[in-house]
Amino acid sequence: MTRSKRRSRTVALTASAVMIALGATACGGSSNNSGSGAPSKGGTLTILDDADFNHIDPQRTYTTEGSSMDYELVRTLTGWDEAGSEPKLVGDLATDTGTPSKGATVWTFHLRHGVKWQDGSEVTAQDVKYGVERAFSPDINGGPPYASQWLAGGDSYKGPYQGKQLPSIQTPDKYTLVFHLNQPVADFNETTAMTGWSAVPKAHDTGATYDTHVWSDGPYMIKSYTKNKELVLVRNKNWSQSTDPIRQQNLDEIDAKFGQDQAAIDQQIKSDGGSAQTSITQTPIAGSDLTTMAGDPSLKSRYYKIPAPGINYMAINMNRVKDIKVRQAIEYAVDKTTVRGAFGGSAYGNYATTMLAPGIDGHKDFNLYSSNPAGDLTKAKALMKQAGNPKSTMSLAVENIPTQEHFADAVKTALAKIGITVNITPIDKNNYFSTVDNVKNQYDLTWGDWIADWPNASTVLPTLFDGRQIKKLPQSNNDLSYLNDPKVNAQIDKIGKMTDIKQRNAAYGELDEQILKDAAVVPLMYMNFSEVSGSKVGGVIDDSIMAEPSLVHAYIKQ
Amino acid sequence: MFRYLIRRLLAAAVIMLVITTITFFIFFALPSDPALLACGKTCSPSRLAEIKHSLGLDQSSLTQYWEFLKGLVAGRDYGDQSVRIHCGAPCLGVSFQTDTPVLTTLLQDFPADLSLGLGAAVAFLILGVGLGTVAAVRRGRAADKAAVGLALFGVSVQIYFIGLLLLYLFVDKFQILPTSGYTSITEDPAGWFKGLILPWATLVIVYLAMYTRLTRSSMLEVFAEDYMRTARAKGLPAATVVLKHGLRAAITPIITIFGMDVGSLIGGSAVITESVFGINGIGKLAVDSVQNSDLPVILGTTLFAATFVVLANVVVDLVYGLVDPRVRLA
Amino acid sequence: MSVQTSPQPADVTPAPAPFLDVRDLKVRFPTEDGLVKSVDGVSFTLEKGSTLGIVGESGSGKSVTSLALLGLHKGTRAQVSGEIWLEGKELVALPEADMRELRGRTVSMIFQDPLSALHPFFTVGAQIAEAYRVHHKVSKKEARDRAVEMLKRVGIPQPERRVRDYPHQFSGGMRQRAMIAMSLVCDPALLIADEPTTALDVTVQAQILDLIRDLQEEFGSAVVIITHDLGVVSDIADDILVMYGGRRIEYGTTRDVLKQPQHPYTWGLLQSMPHLTGDVGERLNPIPGTPPSLINLPDGCSFHPRCAYKGWVPEGRCTVERPELRLVPGTGGHLAACHLTDEAKHEIRDGVRKGA
To answer: Domain ABC transmembrane type-1: where (chain B) (predicted)?
Structure first.
């Protein structure tokens, strides 16, 4: 999942200063956790976001906020039912989670009958095909790359707007879709839970401006959308509960308001007065706000700590830090307690020892380095000695925001103890990833974070460690470690072809361990995302796939 | 007078052109790449090239600049793929981010800035001039010290802090006012007013200081003028002496600064206030556009803000001509 | 002060109270450096229809005295004591509100430098009309007509048109005429003219002085002319009061003071006055030295540091003993404050004349 909106906030310090200065205490929600009890109908839920969604055109959405919003508006082929204790993949538009061919290169989905558009017409397989095809147009940019990567013939297809269709998506009848892939993809049906795999009616497609005209087949539809100001959703009368295994339609209206400062939003929801009682945030609480709010007992009933399928890490550039002893010494030397403190403390997440977070298929629990999160200086020093105590200076790229600069200081202090001088290179946060992802800009150490597109190692390890992308995607190389090991690359290909889930997961776990043996990266924290709502908001589900508060069951307590 | 105006406006147009040019080429000198941002993660070079083409970024910056200028005069048509967007003259371009003509967005956001800026300006002008006058009249006494102290407070606090504090007190804690934000005045005049009280108050607190001090010193200067003694010698009441004869003369230097402030406030300079109170105005738009490397919006907001500052300059000169009969506009 | 205050002939039957009677006026300004004694015990009288010239250098207290007559020190830090009787009313103790009623109506003032004394942002007509309206319940139109009438009266051509002009559009002489028009608009009983001609060139000066004299005859006002130039008052004033360092040093009828000046300072003033009839090449004799500090006046005669004749007084009395204001023998009311004996004065005056 894109990291573009997963930004820590710079202003939180000041905000807390206000709250602390005033001795602010919230009145506190009286009810218990909002998930319980029968939902009441009616009311307006307000979503407060500091900025508008980059996109909610389902084929362009690639942010967690935008996707979470889209799930109220559009239905995807498959989806995650998270009402239970574990997320469960179910058919959404499709009747089930799809049928792979032997070798998983052909996937077939059957659509439910009677799923209606907001104008009452039926959602067809052709609508889904058209929707998926849209993503190939350069006008419909910003979305995930999977369709063009995997659908056969996708590399030369330029979208449906010149009247051309993509032959690898077949619609033998109104309710059947067949996808022909150019490689085996065993978890393709998890990909199809992303918003891009949804239907768009050709007659209502407004192309590049579809963001504000998304045609609904979900429980809510757009009433009005003024970019950067407000999005208002109302009930879609043609949606029916009987065809939808995931969503409910409890609210009269969902009103997303954009543009208020995050600290002001936090302050409002925390105080829980007036309309704040029926509001919820989508941008995670960060920095010192996180520390104070996470520990506030009065917020407990409306505080959502959502474990994200994501990792906060520091990549070590293998091209530049060639001696494995030095890299291992860094692994031992980094003090994760001070690092986590910089990001907001224990509420931010648990210390990580692997690149695959718990909850991601393929996660294997292991720890190759210090058992103490504060590090092991003795080991680190010993490794440096073995390496011949090289005098070295290393650059560290971070975003130019206080949180990250504190993090950089923590690393600098830790590495100074083993004789490594760290030069911190702060980079404008808006251009951070476009800078460090460009192979022209390389650093010895690079901060990064990554959220899996679906909870599967296939959207983490290949993305972050397939060294072939360094050449192929010179401007958007995600392999910040510049690990380009033919054996790892071959292993990535091999696992991709595996169709046996258990075998596959185990192999990914091994791969994770292999990468850490190379000491290509220092995993720092498995991230949590924390959000708050007003006391009258009920039915919020911790969406650990999207790392957002899921609103599909949301209601207003009457 | 008319010829003067024409000349000033022509000069203003030249300034705007220069500002546009500088903004344009600074943007291309920066490392940000809007096509790469639009492309998203894992962007292949071929896809990047297509997006560059669809955004018009595959042309040389000079060509793009020329197209931009042509669009200003003649309008432009955008898009050859999914949708055609017509952007009528004066076309400031179409946002990379929202595919909306920039001018449309600017005009849509403008009422918020106008309400915020003008409302606050009227309030801090009246209050500042009032306080400054009281301070000058009661020079050295308690009222003077209180006014100067108050002004000092306003100048030393951060706008961000004041905004959050007011929000906390009036909206969150005591719930005297509704959650802030901008409501159109045509839609709901009462809501418009209530929503703007705190943003106005924030700007007033910050700007009041300068106007109080300025008025005070300007007033004291005027008090020493001979014509003030003449006014008293005529037997005019003290209030007439101060408010008519004194203020009329003392206000001229204030007009200059006031004009600049109003111009820049309306042009979107109250970014922090906009952000704290969730008023989506030009300032916020400008900041967001920089974050998104949205060149057309960056250009549009810069040009828009510059227009108001330059216009404010012209207006100030015209007002000067009205206020001070000795000033001849030529 | 026991000495007679009026220069008027004393043998006339006891007159009713004079129109203006200033008694022991003191004006002091507290400053960080000390108390500035701008006016220190000044007394004089003035009847309706007559003119008093107050003469002195800048800093002699003459302008401060005139402001006291208008009550313009009220509401400032200035400490005013003594008495100012005007038509039987005492002005020093008069409340500001009552004083304001008198300003512009009963007592009015022509300020020096009309360019700075007129408000640059209002038309001449508006400023005159305002002065009228503040004391008369009339419509704007009536006030405007009155302004035109006054402009005409002071000799401004095309008054209907010029009434709409701003002060900067007037010439220096016309501005002063306008200023006079403004001060006379309410027919004041007492007109104070503070250096009314200083800012003007010589020909215009004469015109303005003629104008003031004509208007005085017409309105029958009492006039106080304040000037540093004895020449200005020699034609127009009935009495002359010479001030130095905030005090009176010589006071008498114009004739007495000009013919028989008693004080070396007055001599100096007379010498520095260009005689219209005299030789063009005649050397002007400005008084050497600078005016005294009003915070620490010199002991004895405050003029002694600049006085060329203090040697004529034995035992350095001039530096230790302050000379009283004394009646000049053989005059009805000519007063002077100087230790020189009459004989010494005669000798010096003769010498000066010869030397000149």
So the answer is: 110-320
Q: Which amino acid is at A443?
A: Y
Q: How far is CA A228 from CA A43, A257, A260, C60, in A?
A: 23, 8, 10, 73
Query: Could you say which residues from 122 to 141 on chain C have a Cβ atom under 8 Å away from some Cβ of chain B?
Result: 122-123, 130-131, 134-135
Q: What are phi and psi of C32, to 5 degrees?
A: -65, -30
A447 three-state secondary structure: strand
Structure tokens, C200: 């003007």
CA distance A186 to A192: 12
Going edge to edge, which strands form the sheet with C79-86? C34-46, C20-31, C79-86, C89-90
Q: Using CB atoms, which residue from A158, A260, A430 is nearest to B277? A: A260
Q: Quickly name the fold that domain A306-529 has.
A: Dipeptide-binding Protein; domain 3 (3.10.105)
B47 and A CB contact within 8 Å: yes
B326/C101 CB distance under 8 A? no
How far is residue A122's CA from residue A113's CA, in Å, rounded to a whole number?
Answer: 8
Minimum-distance CB partner of A159 among B44, B81, B277: B81
Residue B286 tokens read as 């400008």
Residue A473 CA to residue A471 CA, distance in Å, equals 6
Tell me the backbone φ, ψ of residue C289, rounded to 5 degrees: 95, 175
Measured CA to CA, the distance from residue C116 to residue B249 in angstroms comes to 13
Q: Which of A235, A155, A195, A252 is nearest to A55 (CA)?
A: A195
Name beta bridge partners: C22: C44, C84
Domain spanning B103-327, CATH architecture? Orthogonal Bundle (1.10)
Distance CA A23, CA A26 (A): 10
DSSP lists the bridge partners of residue A231 as A225, A256
C near B: at least 3 beta-carbon pairs less than 8 Å apart: yes
Evaluate whether chains A and B are touching (3 or more beta carbon pairs less than 8 Å apart).
yes
Q: What is residue C353's predicted lDDT score, i.e. its pLDDT?
A: 59
Give the percent of chain A with pLDDT over 90: 66
CB atoms C108 and B233 under 8 Å: yes
Q: What is A44-252+533-556's CATH number?
A: 3.40.190.10
Whether the CB of C120 is below 8 Å from some CB of chain B: the reply is yes
Closest CA to C293 of C310, C283, C306, C311: C306
- CA atoms within a 13 Å half-sphere pointing along the CA-CB vector of B18: 7
List, for residues A344-388, the tens digit of each pLDDT value.
888 899 999 999 999 899 999 999 999 999 999 999 999 999 999
**ipTM of this predicted complex?**
0.84
**Neighbour count for residue A369 (Cβ, 10 Å):** 21
Half-sphere exposure at residue A546, Cβ-oriented, CA atoms within 13 angstroms = 29
pTM score, whole prediction: 0.81
Residues 45-104 of C with CB under 8 A from B: 67, 70, 72, 75, 96, 100-104
Strands A420-427, A445-451: pairing kind: unpaired
Amino acid at the residue A132 = V
For chain A, give every residue range classified as CATH 3.40.190.10. Answer: 44-252+533-556
Whole-angstrom distance, CA of residue C31 vs CA of residue A268: 56
Token pair listed for A176: 């059947």
Residues from chain C that touch B231, judged by Cβ atoms under 8 A, are 119
pLDDT tops 70 at residue C282: no
| The residue type at A177 | L
